Structures are given as structure tokens and as C-alpha cells.
Protein 1
Amino acid sequence: MRMMRRDHIEAEIRRRADGYRPQTHLIADYYRVRRKIAYPLPIRGIYLPGMPIPGIRAYPWSIWLAWSLEERILSLGWAASWFSDGEARRLAVADLDALAEWPCYRQLPMPDLSSGHALRTLWQARTRWDWLPSRIRTKIERAFLRHIEDTLPLSDARHGAYACKDDILALEAPHTALHNIPFIGTVGLALAANSISHPAADTLNRRLEALLGAILDLRSGGHSEGIGYDGYILDFAADWLDTLSPSRRNAMMAHPRFGDVLDESIALGAPGDVANIAQLSDAEPREMPFHISGHAKLFRHRASPRTGWYLNRCGLSWMRADALAALHGIGDDDQWKPPRAGAMDAHYAVVLRSGWEPDDLAVAMAASNSKMSHVQNDNGTIVIGARGRWPVSDPGYQQYMKKREREFTLGLTAHNAPVINGMAQAEKPADRRVVLRRCGGTTYSAELDLTDCYPAELALKRVVRTLWLSERDLVVAADRVRGASVESVTYHWHGHPDAAWWVQDNMARIYAPDLTFWIGSPQARITDGNVDRLPGSRGQLTLVANADPSAPCVWWVFAKGDIQPVVTLHDRGRGIRVGGRNFEISRT
């Protein structure tokens, strides 16, 4: 189905605007900590609820408030623009009038996420909507001046020492200057300054050129915050780039790593639903679709068949309103075609996939040496996708509250790389040692060295995970664990939260009416008792199994289809046969 048709986009904006019309309160969903707040409209400042969040003294309430308010105002505002909708215009003006009165747009002592979103909302209204009353334009300009006066000194204190990207790259730990929060807040500050031709505009533009340039340079060595936050940075960078001269914008976009986030988006999309990205580390496809917004906004400056194909396959219901506005009027093109499937590098993960259609199969494996905290210690963890979702999954986020759910998302049982002698991975390696191969026909493999990810006290000689994708129905994984005192190897395979389970003949079955996945290992005993809902899970069931630590390698089979596969070992456990297909590990 073609998603970028103008009438489809307009229908989606109309639907959202109609939903906002009767609301007397703005609903902000703090899904990470399972709270919902109804803020009375119009909102005239940041309100920090007193609801307790265990283990967090100052919760960032302002972020989700700003996300929700931006969506409301942009949905109403574009409805007013496209349909001459008087009621939508009245509501958008009332919200903008109140937003322009906020005494402060930040919760933190820096340019932060709430200030980035609030200032971007005002900037979009001032620069995109010619129907905006002049008094509101004037009020927004005064708000910009107020925010620049308040926040520019904090920006100078944080990033003022960096005249160019080389100053950042010369730091002992350059990644510490490149977190998404102050970058996004600085974009909001620059949008405000550029909009009113403030004297600080050039300083802020150069600051962002240094920050984004350093991020792009470091990506060649593995720097990433994962698709959720890489995309967040791209989304705001796209708005800022739009304010620059063509020469300055093109210089940034010509960087050889500028397209990395598009690689991540395309490679990590589920077969049948490309917007449903693999939830490795800290990535939330529905709640944080900012990468799609970034691609949509940049498309008019950097159109390509790959980007056009990707955007045309993203469902509109998950897109944010600014992405829909960016795509409005672009149309589609019969020449847009998917990239070639097979073995793909998604930069903080590797992906083997047969294609992007619902009946295809994809397996993504975490493979990162990034020092950023949103990329967890989960190397080797795999998720397997088909039919628009990921039936073999991962928590895919990190719980902020210091309770059992935090342990489920970050602790010993959070991922499916082997737990060795009761210890999970403790760090990411200095080097990203991964090999991608085409094995012939429609079989592809990936191999990742995990040795340096584990605590030194284990004294491991080698831990290697090898992965195969065969045709559209089979994934095979082999783990070689070598060490002088390896006593136990344990696995935690999480299913999709909505999936049902069954166990028979030493294999577990993850079942949905349109999809079945079999999971099993000849080195592990699997019964009903191995399937459990672990403490802190929001619904995912987990297959917990101990494997034979003395085996040459531990084999795991993941087969799509209603018929349970026949699995046999050969070559003293160095090879495995699944139906008529053979897989072998090297003898090195």
C-alpha cells in the first residue's frame, strides 16, 4: 500500500485534529513509568507532578509533556492550514498563546529536551503558518528572546569551549560532549535565534556544526545511541539544517556517515512493517519514531530511491505530525524500490534478512562498541521478525524506576546472549569484531566475538556467536564458549508480549494465529517448566534453559512454520542438520 498519497496524509491529520477538539486536558503518557497525567488546557508553564517515582528524585516530567503538546498543536495547526478549519485554528492559537507565555522552557540546567520541543513548536508555527495572528507572532518573538537570554549562558558553559569539531574529537572521552539531550536543546535554541536573526545565531549554528560533525566522525568508530536516539538527533538536525544556507547545509549532508541512520531504519524494520524497528537496547518503535521524521524532512534536500521506498512503506499512524507535514505533497514514485536483502550492517547491529514482505524473515543481532548508555551491554542478543513484528524479542527499553522491572530490562536475564557461570555481559568491547557472509543461495551468516564483553574474572578464552539465516523460514545460532572453568551456560529467550506458548518434544512453540516459531536446542532440556514470566516483565514470557557447557558449541534453532523441524547433530556436535539443511562451525 502506498502511504505517501496526499489524501491519506490529510485524512490522518484530520483524524488527529478531530480527536483533540473536545479535549479539555492534554494527556501525557509517561509509559516508561506507567503514569498518565491530564494537564489542564491551555498550558502556561512546566508543571512537575508530585507523584512519586521510586528511585528517581527529579523525574523528567517535562519531556513527555512537550512531546504531547507539540503533537496537539501541530495536528490542529496543519488542519487549519490544509482545510481552512476555523475551530482547529482557534484551538491552535489558544495553545500557542499559552506556550509563548511560559516563563522557562527547560527543566534542567542546560538546553534540554523540553526546551527543544517547545521552541521547535513555536518556530514551526511562526515560520510555516501564514494565518497566525500578528500578536501571536510578536509574542513568540518575545518568548525566543526570553529563552535565549535564559539558556544561552548555560549552552556557553557546556559547549562554548568547542569552536569546531576537532576540539571535541581531541577530548579524552569525546562522546561525553555528544549526548542527545543538550544537542536537541541547542537545536531549539538555534531555531529561536535564527528565526529572529539574533546576534547569537551564528555562534549557535557553528556550535551545532561542531557537535553534529563530531558525532558523524565518531560514527566511523562505532559511536551510536541506537535507532531511537540516533533518529531523535537526526529529526532535530533536519529542522536546523533547513534554516542554513544551501552551501552550509550541503556541506553537513555530504559527510560520508550522514546516511547511517537511514541504514539503521531500513535494516532494522520488521518484515511486513518497516516502521516497527527491532527493539535492541533502548529503542521504542511506536513511542519514538523520530528517525522517520528526520528522513521525511530531509527528503526534499536529499531524495533517493531508498529513502522514497522506505517512507512509502511506513504506516502513517505511527508518524509524528511534523513528519506528515513534511511528506504532504511529495507524492510517490513507481521507481522507488527496496534495497537488496541479505547480510546488512545497521552500525550498532547486524541484520540478516530475506526481504521486507510479511512472509519474509529477518534476524537482527546487537553488535556495538559504542560508549553511549542507551546502547546496552547486549552484544550477540538476537531478535527475529516476521509478519510485521518480532516474535523472538527483547525488552527493548530500560526502565527508569529502580524496581524489578529495571532488572528485567537491564539485568542478568534481560538479553539472550549466554549467561556464563551466572554472569552476564559487563561491557562493550573496544573493537567491533563482526563478520558478515553470504554462504550461497539464500543463506547468510554473521559472526560476532563476544569474549571481551564478559567480566575478566571468568577468564574466558573465547566466546563467539555465529548466526545463519536460511531462506524465509530458518535461523540457526551457534555459541562457542571456551574457558578453563566454564560450569554453566544459561539462556533467556523472550517472546513477543502478545504471543502464546506451547512446549512439545523438547522444543518451545511461540504461537500467534498467523505465525508460529519453534525454538529448541539439542544441548538443552526444554519442558513447560522452562517457560516463565520473569519478575518485572510487562507481559513477555521467557524460555529459560541451561545448556551443556562441555559441548563443542551450543546450537539453537528457530524455525518458522506449523511443522516442528527435525534436528540432528553431526561431526561430534560441530555441525547440525535441520530438515535437509546443514550448518557447521569452523574448527578455529
Note: The chain has a mean pLDDT of 96.
Protein 2
Amino acid sequence: MYRTHTCGQLRIENVGQKVTLAGWVQRSRKLGGMTFIDLRDRYGITQLVVDEGNTDLMATASSLGREFVIQIVGTVVERQSKNSKMPTGDIEIALETINILNKAQTPPFTIEDESDGGEDIRAKYRYLDLRRNPLKNALQLRHRLAHEVRNFLDGEGFLEIETPYLIKSTPEGARDFVVPSRMNPGQFYALPQSPQTFKQLLMVAGYDRYFQIVRCFRDEDLRADRQPEFTQIDCEMSFVERDDVLDVFERMMRTLFKNALGVDIPAKLQRMSWYDAMDFYGSDKPDVRFEMKIADITSLAHGHEFSVFDSAEYIGAIAAKGCSEYTRKQIDELTEWVKRPQIGAKGLVYIKCNSDGTFKSSIDKFFTPEDLAKIAEKVGADKGDLILALCGPKRKTQGQLGTLRLEMGNRLGLRDPFNFAPLWIVDFPLFEWSEEDNRFYAMHHPFTSPKPEHLDWYYSNKKEDLERVCANAYDFVLNGTELGGGSIRIHDAEVQKRMFEILGFSAEDADYKFGFIINAFKFGAPPHGGLAFGFDRVCALFGGQETIRDYIAFPKNNQGRDVMIDSPSYIDDVQMDELALKSTAPRQ
């Protein structure tokens, strides 16, 4: 055997034992007549020591470079200078032999917790970056969470069932990744954006509790919490209503928090309607770790001969606690911040609620102190607070205020990543109207059912009625991030037919794109619903991070490239011919 113990295993009780270890050289240093070597594997670090009296062994030790792979034999001894910061810090190994298993070039960055390598170079040498503790800990957390998920769902009677990766393209939602078929020239598979239709077919088949931790694929613009290939905890249940689904997955998340982090979350989570989330937080994934709710001050702000407000459909405001001392320079900087293209506000109005009870604002010319006091009361501002107001179209302005609210939360230190505030968002609109296309789109997907009490509106031909229909859907939100979402599905053929009509599918289009599931429903589809959690996001937030990359062994960059293996790449002409493909893009 290459080793009798790992590099994180030995303790003071092992003193006197002869052991064999194997791993990578973290660092080597000479102190007086001794050479000390830190040997690392994924379990930890053990210090090795060589006495200068052993000239042959000293020569071998002196030849070791960083990241050399070695095997050693030695005796565990008690360290004279103990290191309480290391689990193995009470002992060291007095070496007898060193066997160099593999030499290593000097790595392009230091393999330390705080590396000197930039993001690009570490991505290129990802296999080296994965040796660092932050990434090792991230992947260990991912493993623990996956283990807890499987244990919990198995205990709830769920079966883990795999579904295909090569499927049919159903163009709703994000763009599909497509795969050409050699055996069927000119035809293409699509990689699944989710196993949605297959898990519904499993309900038709009678497998009333299904799950899988599954890879999904979406060809969309990337960001910190989005990758072209990602992992879902995908679940579906039969003979359930909304509350049944929410109960199971509330308990699952409570189990994950408790067993993986030792954190207790409330036994019953808050449920907030989509409309309240937008009105008070400007987001359908609100961060409720702090208040600073948005207040509608439209009625108070209109009619004061301030044209910017008088011409606006909506005026909203937030109160930043303790910020009345903000300087003009700071407020100007905030104004420029909200005017950035990513936010798109035209300007920012401020009202300082001074500690002496007076007000100072950018609209003093138009509003009396009494007017400002009424606004302060509406917003919930106290002495010492700073009111920030935006105006414009209602939903757009609420979104801008929501972004400003998060920024102020960051500046005031209100968004501690280890302060967890989960909740459910419910009662989403079923449809969203596109002015550009003059048609409705499904806010989630075309198999989401309307709330039963809204069926009269659902069958109406009036646009305003259809806009009032709520989906029987729900999202699990944590600290301003949507971690999971799902719905009670349509299982009735007539309700599904009506959905396709509203979305503008002809009977022929619906049959071509979704005929397999429509036909399956004719053979007895049970009432069913489900939910999918973004597993990468769960891992990242449990680890206190916003980016998911460190929780994926081999992620892509923001351009969708794997710079380590240089993918995507061109294929040769022979493969192109086999697949009946012809590219119009010039090779670079």
C-alpha cells in the first residue's frame, strides 16, 4: 500500500507508530540543522522532519519542489513547537525514507488558501486550483448536501429515476443546446433544459414520487449564479395539492440546514405573494434579511408642481436607516449609480430626516416640511434616516428600487451571508404579455396549472382577465436568490388545450411539439405537481457565496468556455460530413 494513514489523520495518540504517508509537497523549509516538509492530501497536512545527520535523506529532501508527489516512511513523534491551528499540529513524522513518486513543474500559482493566481489562470489550471482548501471544502459541502438530499427523499418514499439527455427540442423558455444525429441526417436532438415532460410522464406511469439529482442544459447568457450546464434536485409527486409539496420540501430544506450547517430554520416558512414581493421588495426573489421595504408614495408626491413626479405613473421610496449624514458627494455617487444602464433610472430624489426633526431634500422647492413629514411617515423613516425615491412605470421603477435597496443593504452591512432567511413566493401571474410580439407567454412553462378559483378568467377571451389569472406555482427563495421553483401541473386535457390556445399554438404545433405528453394524458393522468431546486445555487448559498463556480468541479467561464480543455472547439470536415452539417462561420 502507498499509505497507512492520510495526511489529516494522525494525532498525539499515534506517537511512536511507524507510518507510511503519500501526498503532495506543500512547502519545504530549512531551520537550523533540520528540514521541515509539509505533506498534503485532501484530508489535511502533516509536517515531516529530516535531521541533517542523515546526509542521504537530507539530499533527497533538498531536491523536493512544490507539488512533488512523494511517499514517506517514518515514526510519529510529538512536536516540540505545536501548531494549534492544524488538526495534526501536535505531531510530526521523523523520516526514515522518502520515495519520489512523481516530480512536478513549479505551478503557475501558489496552492494556498489565498492564492496569487488570477481567475483566468486558475481556470486554465483548474486541476491545480482544486487542490486548494476553499475549493476542496466547497466540493465536500456539495457531496454532503447531495447525500442528505438522497437520504431524506428516500425516507419519504421517492424513487431516483434517470431520464434521457438526448430529447426533442421544445422551444419555450431558454434556447436549447442541440446535438446533430448521424443516423438521422438533418435531424437534431436537444439537451434537456429540465426533465419536465419526462417526470410528468412518470406520474402518468404511476411512479408517484420521483426525484433525481440531474444535469440540465440552457443556452443563455451567463452570470455568477448561472452556467450552461447545471444541476437540479428534480422532484415530482402525484395526488398532491400545493401545500403537500411545500410541506415536503420545507422539511427537506430544514434537514439540509440542520445536518449540513447545524442551522435551525423556522418550522413554518413565510409565504409571500408575487404581488407583495414586487410591491414591497421590487423583486420576485426578495431578500428579507432586512426591512427597508418599498413604499408607494404616488398619491403623496403628485400635485406639487414637480413635473418629474406629476408625470410619473408611479413614485416609490425606501428609507435607509441612519444615513441622513450622507454627504452631497455620496448622494451624487448614488444618483450616478442608479443611472447606470444596468438599472436605467433617470435620476434620484432624496429626503434627509435630520436628527433634530427637520428635513433637507432635493425637492424642497416643491414640498413643504409638512409634505415631507407625510412621506417620511409613509416610508417608515425616523430621525437620522435617508429617504431615496425613484419614479416611472410601476413595475420597472419597483425593480430599480429593489436593486437600490440591495445596494444599500450591502453598504449598511445588512446582508450577512450566514444569516439565512428562506421563504416561499406564491401566486405568480400565470401569463406575461409581450407588447413586442402581441401575445402571451407562460411565466413558468406551458404545463403550469392555473389556480382552480381563477378558471373563469382562464377561459375568458379578455386580455385583462387573463392577466389576472394566478399560477398554482411557488418558488423557494433564500437571501435574495431563487433556489427552487415548481407548480401543480395541468393534468386535464381540456385545461392543457386551453393553455396552448392562449399561448398561440395551433393544434398542429401543439401536437408536433408536445404530442407525446398530450397523448399520454389521455390514458389517465393523476393530479400531480413538483419542484426543482438549483443544486449548484443551494451549495453556493450554504457555503456563503454568490457565485456557483467554486461548487462545480469543472465550470465554464462567462463566455461559456472551458479554458482548461479549450471547449467548445471546431470539428474536422469528416465529422461535419458525417453529420450532414455545413458551417458558415469562419474558423479563427
Note: The first strand starts at residue 18 and ends at 31.
Protein 3
Amino acid sequence: MKSNPVADEKQFVNLLISWISRQTGTPTRNGVEETAQKLADIYEFKTNLEPVITEALTAVDTQMGAGISLVDVETPHDDKWVSKREDIHSIYSNAYEDYLKGEGWAPPVIQSLSDVSARILGHLQDPNNEGDWDRRGLVIGHVQSGKTANYMGVIAKAADAGYKFIIIIAGIHNNLRKQTQERVDEGFVGRSSEPGNHTNVGVGANKDYPHPATLTNIHQDFNKNTAAQSGWQINDFTKPIILVIKKNVRTLDSLYNWLRDMNAQGHGRISDVPMLMIDDEADHASINTNREDIDPTRTNAMIRKILRLFAKSCYVGYTATPFANIFINPESYGDEEVHKELFPRDFIYCLDPPSTYFGPERVFVDEDDGADAILEPITDCENYLPQAHKNYYEIPDLPPSLYRAIDQFIVARAIRNLRGHVNKHCSMMINVSRFVVVQQSVRNLISVYLKKMREAVKANYKMPDAVADHNEYMRALKERFSGDYKSCSADWRDVKKELFAIFDHLHIYTINSRSDEVLNYKKYEQEGYGLTAIAIGGLSLSRGLTIEGL
């Protein structure tokens, strides 16, 4: 096997999942353990097998429901058009599903994702239909529950069906656009969009894969001048074109002008190119917040103008908080250029989360694992960082509860490492202010705290408790272990020995519009490490950015 520990473990888990999935009956844990040991001997896999076996069994046992849809039955539309068309070859969708299999997704979950994506595609228009048409829809999913994977599946199936121009509007922040571009590169384009390094990735591992075209990359949003210099027009491509853009007026305006100047034909419209627009975080910035009797907000207007350029278009918003979208007035302001509002008049589809999803129901409703066991009330913050504070607020220090949470995170990471999760990502999210300056102050205080903790751990992690307990940082970590993790199977002596290794790959990230720090989990996977990350931010953390290993 390869020398990269993260890749080795992922490959081994996939082998085990594949074996379990092929069994006709329900495999026993003993049987899985025996098979895992045999495979480990064959492939010379030396890592602890226990977490690998647990991960494989969990993946196979994970289920996803079909979800439920609300459809306008008065609109003439055949939801079964996908199954009726015999000319659809599932090239892109099959490649995407194979890619997910390689990422460790269990076959039942992949099949469920495929089925749901097909149902959502059925709610769109058949791209082969003649005449002018447009459809508006909304997909609702839980926070951090796989919305991106879902719309990637929809995009792949839409491309197979004949949608030629696909736009993903990936929120208002650069980090989310970059993360989405990376996922599109791996799950659809099949080629890295890193300038000067267009190696095949993800679905592109198959040398015969028909790579779609893209006019954006991980570093650069859509730019009219760059697109114009390429000399490309939509009809120049026999394969689909996809763009991942930020929800930014300047970017939307550049795209609109390029589409109009380079591609519009009779009556200033693009008549023969079926277009699909995916609006991620559709409740944010896309909504017209002006009064109905005046012009719409610029972002809202630009999205509608781009849709209006195409004679054949579908708009699908994705969000976990749909309230603003469903309260759009479908009859509100619109002229010939701006056209119809973004109200999801044709369908609303509610996704089911996977059975392993840990969300609000587990926290607030589940009687066996509810709020008393999970939530910790914070009562000490007002004197340090009031809930209502302004920009440039000077923080005297961090609340003791936040320092305690950091201690808990460090101890939890040590316990996970002891359980064999060294190659897994582990993240902590700190979202206490929407102001960039305050976020930086929080980061500075945490950085000082972790530096002192690292020095304390380095000096004491091999010392007996009689010595180590004299250090306030070691004493705090021990108190967190005995107070919060006493029911786990680990022993403090083992946890203490594991503490020092954590700091080798522990990094603090400030995630906001002014930061150039990138929370790049892939980079660490490629280097063979699991990242331990503390992410500090505000709105950027609240809007679609995936934080792995929370």
C-alpha cells in the first residue's frame, strides 16, 4: 500500500466496506474482525484495526431517507421525464458515485443519494424540451448534513441529461467559494483547477473521463476579462461548462455582461443552452430586502437578470434556514430585464439527514442523549465579551468557560488519538463575535494560552502527577479529564503521555473576509496527517463552510 498513513487508512476502510457490503447476511463483528486481520496481513496494514472496523461498520449501517417534496400540481410538468428518456447515459453521475465509493461512502448511502438526486432532477425541466421555460425550486437540508454532496449529485445527473451551462453561487465568502470549487474539481470536473497544476483528481482518475469545462479555479472567481481573452463561447463546448462564483454584485455583473456580450443572440437572450443555477446559502444575500414598490437589491436583481438571459433555465436554492425564501412574495417587483422573483414556486424538497447525523434533535429532543448531557450553559461571558458588543471592543481576557472548553478539546483529542484516530481530523469552532477585529483579539489570547500550555505539556507530560500537578495548565487538563471524561475507557496516565504529540499538528485559523488563512484539510491528508484545528470566526463559519471532525 502507499506510504501516506491517511490514504492507507482510507483505502483499507474502503476495502472493508466493500467486503461487508457484498455479504448476503448480516455480518457479525467477529467475522468483520477476522476479515480485517486477514486484509491487514495481505496489505501490510500496521495501524490499530479497532477504529477502522468501527468506521466501516458505521458506514455500512448508515441510512438516508428519501426526503419529501412539495410540488405545485397546477403547473404542467412530468416528474417522470428522467426515467422516460432512453438516451440519458449516466457518465457523470456514475463517475461521481464511484468517487464517493472511493471516499468511503457505503453503497446503501450512495444509492440513496443517487435516488434523491434523480427525484430532484425530475422536478427540473427536461433540457430537451423546446420553447422557453424556467423553473424555480428550493432544497432544504440540515446544517452540515450533506447538502453539497446532494447538489453535486444533481449537477452530475443534470449534465448527463443535457444541461450545458451550470452555475454554482457559493455564498458570499472567498473561503466557501474556494472549498466548493475544490469539491467540484474532485466530484465533477475531474481535474485540479490549481493554476499550472491541472492534474487529474477525483472522478478524473479514469483516463477516459470526459472533463467538463470550467472558467473558475480555486484561486480566481469569474472574471469577464479572463473569460473574454479565452475567446470561448458557450456553444463552443460539446461538454458541460461549470462555474463556481461568489455571491458578489461585481462577480454577478461580470458574468452577466460576458454572457450577454459573448453569447446572447436574437432578442438579447441565449436560446439554445439549457442552464442550471445552484444557489448555495440561498437565504443569504439572494433575497430582495427592499420594499416591493422600488427596485430590488442589487444581488437579487443580478441573479434574476442572469436567469432572464437564458430562454431555458432552472434555479435551485439550497439552505438549512428556508424562512426568508418561502416568504418571498412571488408577485413582487419585476420588469422585462429583471424578470421573476426567486420564490420556489415549482417545488420545495426536504432532505432527510443520514441516520448518523448529530444535530438539534439529538441535542434538544432525544431523551437518552439530551441537553443535560450535551449542553453546558455559559454564564461567565458578559464581563469579558458581552453578547451585545460593538466593533473594536477591547477584550480584557477570555471567559474561564472558553479556556475550559479549549482544555476539553485538547483532552478529547488525546483520547481520540489513543483510540486510533490519529489520522482523523479534529476541529473546534469558536464563534463569539461577527467583528473581524474582535475575532483577531480572541485569536491572540488563545494563541498565548496554547503556547503556554504547549510549554507546560512539553516539560511535564512524562513526569509523575506529584510533579506535573504543580503546573496550572497540567492541573487544568487533569481536572477536565477527571470531571468530563471519567466514563471513557482511557487512563489519565496514557492521556498525559499523548498530550505532547497533539501540538505537532495543532493550528489556529481565523476565518473571515480579511484573513488569508485557509482551513485546508486536504493538504494535511496529502501529507499523511490528521489536522487538529481551532477555527475562530463569525459569519464565515455560519455560512456553509464545512468544518471536519467537529
Note: The first strand starts at residue 68 and ends at 71.
Protein 4
Amino acid sequence: MKHIKLKFIMKIVLISISLLLTVFTARGREFHERNSLVPPPADTVRSIISPVSPRQAIEGWGVSLCWWANMCGKWSDDKIDELVDWMVSPDGLNWNIFRYNIGGGDDPNWSNCKKHHMGEGKGLRAEMEGFQDERNGAFHWERDAAQRKILLKIKEKRPDAIFEAFSNSCPWWMTYSGCSAGNKDANKDNLRPEYYKDFANYLVEVCKHYKEEYGIEFRTLDPFNEPMTNYWYQSGSQEGCHFDFSSQVAFIKVLAPILTKSGLKTTISASDETDIKIAVQGFKEYQKENATGYVSQWNSHTYSANNRDRSRFGSLARAEGKVVWMSETGSGGNGIDGNLGLAQRLIDDVRYIAPDAWIDWQYMEENNDQWCLVNGSFANATYNKVKNFYVRQQVTRFIRQGYHIVYSSDSCSLAALNPDGNELVVVLINPDAYKVHHLCLPMACTTGNISAWRTSQTESLSPVHDFELKKNNAIDVTLPEKSITTLVIPVTLQANSTHDICDGGTYLIVPQSNATAAVSVTDNKLDLTKVDAADPAQRWTVKKQSDGSYKLMNDSGNIPTCSGQSALTSSNADGAGQTFQITKVDGIHVKICPDGTSRKAWEVKGGKIEAGMDIGTCDYGNSASADQCNWMLVRIKDARP
């Protein structure tokens, strides 16, 4: 009897356990389905990141002090401290580069212009004080106290800060119009040539004063701001001065010896054009006049830009050993759409200009949440972070000073490797509807817990876990609509991160101005195809020959063969015309020249760089801006043992 009762009890217990397991399993499945990655839709974004294919090292992020500092510097110390902390803290925006505006100063009597005309667009914040009122006159160092207070507070809180001085206009008394907003004809220079030396001395004296009085030595001095535009006119809304290219060169040749004689370490930067196409043209004009040697750093704004002009500008400057800055930009728009649009511009600038630094135009504004990261009232000394602040943090807080930008194939991505080579940062923008981004990481192994943060319409730099580590070091990342996501990935590299060519390594061959395409083979011809690191036709093994040239073969057995004056075909057998010289162009890109030729190089035919274009050879010439002939070798596999 007891035995029967025991069996009955055990049966009841087993049934109960089974029911409990069913419940827990169902709840577990429900929890997993609720918290795991949603199955990838058909339009999943697929891209690769090669952490051993470095581009530029980032020396910093920052902002101009013109003109918000001219207003906020009048506030109480506690508010100034908080505003500056938000900028310079490594956990804030992590900014370390700041551009100080040397004001020219307008005619205090407005004899040649409308009274307070600079208050008509930007408010009286744009009405800058000059330090000198007449030729050979005394310098009034008590002026510009508000901007100076912000500058000194930054120096106190961020000792490693880099400072640049720049000018929008010379003082009014040096001009044709008698107005520091520009000439009566906005297409003409406003600085009189007979005052070139006076203006050069003015700028250098300001730099000397800040070094001697406050211990701030500006690393660079830029005497121009968007000089080739017709924005600057008499009685306009801010200081501005047109300079033709020839005038820029002439003035720099006056400024350079005066700056050298000053004993300062400050060097010249130029020329802050608003349109990067004009910046490319300007650099070439400087080259014609043998004037690039006077300039250590090349700056450009990107209010107008496309990726081809971006890459041409950066390549030209790097080829001459210049530091490259994207020194100012901003954008309008609405809500997070506008904020993400500017973040996309940042990504395009960093990927294609390959600048050492990227710098915002305004930190604080009134009446909008687009041209600023902090919104408030200058008069009431009230302020608050806007969504744009967190969007910018997604980049600048995580891609820190000294990190190398590395190759990423998707146009909405930015990737960087830390100096120790054990942390990969990936930023992904999604301006559209929900999607999943499938990241492939050749040449790297994940070694620890991945962290991620996201800013969206409802989140502000919020920690998230919407990612899944897949096989072969791939990661699927959920990207909600209108969002920006940053991943910090611990990695071990399978090879050193280097610009050098690895004998026997496997590479994608990517055109300079289009990171989304790579060299492939179609119908026995070399052409551009959308990047796919798994495509055998795009995977090129590079073998060094005894004479220093290289031979290439893809995983399909195709060998590039130069078989005519401009033809470039493929062969599956060894033959003539199959060795190439691979020569560095600008520290990032290379040209690929048929062995034994002095001028020929691989070229995307027709001058276009889109997928589907054939590749042949052409006369390369001497210009590093020949982007259709320049390539990046993206390493995706180590040399075979």
C-alpha cells in the first residue's frame, strides 16, 4: 500500500515539475523573443570594417569661440564652468580644439555703414571689438574680455587644448569701404594692399600678447575666413573680407616673415574656404605661386562639399605633408533629422577628407536646435543641452584623441581603433526606417563584452544591448529609425595595423573617393563592384617580386594584365604585363602603375567612380587630386603560411 502511495506521489511530483518546466520554457522563450535581435529584414545593411587598414589619426574635435563666447563670457563663473565642463570633459563632448576669433573692429562712429548693422543677422554677439583704432595706435587689451574669459577657462580645464587664432576681417581703418563687414562690391578685396604689413603686425601682436600675458601660444594663425566668397559686403551682418587667390598669396608672403621674426612657434594655416571645391582650386593656385611652403596646415569648411572634392582636398594637402583640418561647418534642418544630417556630414568629412581634426561652428545658439549643441538665452543666461549635443557625443566621446580612423565600407559608418590596438569603436547612423546592420570584422577577433550607446528620438546617449555577436566575428546591430549607435568592441588584431603592404596578404582594392566599391573582374575585364569581402573576384592577394614590383591575383585566379596602351584585362595564366609598381601618394592611398612605365596608372575609366565602371590605365600626371587613379588597399586576410 505504501509502495502504491509513493508511486502516486512521485507521479504527481513529476507531472508538477513538467508543468513548471513548460511554464518556465514558455516564459523564457517569450523573454528571449522580446529581448533578442529581431530577425534581419531583407534589406539588412551588410558591411565590413578592416581595423588593420588605418587612415588618419584623430588629433581632436572642437569648436569656434566666435561668437557665442562673446556673449556667454559675460555670465557668472558657475555657469561658465558648467558650459566649459560640458565641452572639454572626456565624458562630455571631449573637445580639445578651440578657434579664437581675433576681432577687427568696426568704425565706432559708423561713418561708412549702418549703425549696429552687425546686429541684423546674428545679434550684437557678432559685433566684435578690435584692439587697435588707428595706424601705429595703441593696443587696447582690455577689449574682448568675454571671449577671453571663455578661452582662459578652457585652458584651465583642458591643459592639452590646441588653440588656433583666426580673423574674419582686418580693422575697419585698413579697408577700402571703411567697414569691417566687407567691400561695397562683395566680389572685391576689402583690405588695402598698403595695409598688408599693418594687418600682419596686428595679427602677430595679438598672438604675442596671449603668449606673454596668459601663456596661450596659438598653434596656428589663419588670416582668412571664406575669402573667395561674395558673402562679405559693406553694412553686412558680420565681419568678413574677400581675398582673391592672388591676394591671399601676396598677404601670406608678408605675414610669414613677420610671424617668424616674432619668436612665436605659431605657424600659418589657410584658407578656410566655405566650399571644398574652392579649397581644392585654392590649393592648386598656391602651388602655382610656390606658396604652399608658407602654410603648415590646410583648413577648409564643408558647407558645400561632395565626397570627390573632399578626398581631393585631403590628398593634395597630405601629399605635401600638411596637417589637414575641417575647421568649420554647421547645418540647419528640423529635429533629429537635421542633427543626423550634420552627423552624416561629419562621417563623410572624416572618411574622405581624412582630416586630423573636425570642428563645429557654434556651441550655443538662440531660437534653434540645429546650429548648436546647447540652446539658451544670452540675455537671461539660461541654457540646456539639445539632441544635437548627444548626437555629437556619439562620435567625439568615444573616438578619442590619438585613435586611428580605419576602413569601413558602409557610407553611414565610421570606425576607429585605439592606440593600443585593442578597442574598436564603430558609429552607425540610420536616418531612415528600422534596419539591421551586419558588421563583418576581418583581421580581428572580439575578446570581451561589447558595449553600445544610442541616441534616437526617444533616447539620449542611452546604453543599449540591441546587438548580437555572430560567428566569424560578425555582429548584427539593431538600428531603430532615425538613430545613431556607437559600439565599443574589445578586439585582438590578427596582424599589425599598418599602411605598409603585406607580401602575400589579401586585399580589397578600393577607389579613393568611393569606399563602397572595390575592384573586381567581370567578363575578363577589371571593373568596380559593390564591396563584398566574401566575393572571390574582389579578394586580391599581393605578391612582391624580386625586383620590388608586385603581382596580383584574386581568389578566382584572375591576374590583372596590362595588354595595351590603356587596356587592363585579366588572365588566368602567367604572361607579360602582369607586374605593377605600387607607390604611396599621400600616406593613405597608392597609385598602381604597370611595371616599366613612368606615367601610366590604373584609372577608373570615364572619370566616374561608381560600381559598374571599367578600369584601365591612363597618364597619371603629378597631381595627388587625381582621385580616379588613387586607391586604398584594404587588408582582409594575412599572408598565407
Note: The longest helix spans residues 2-35.
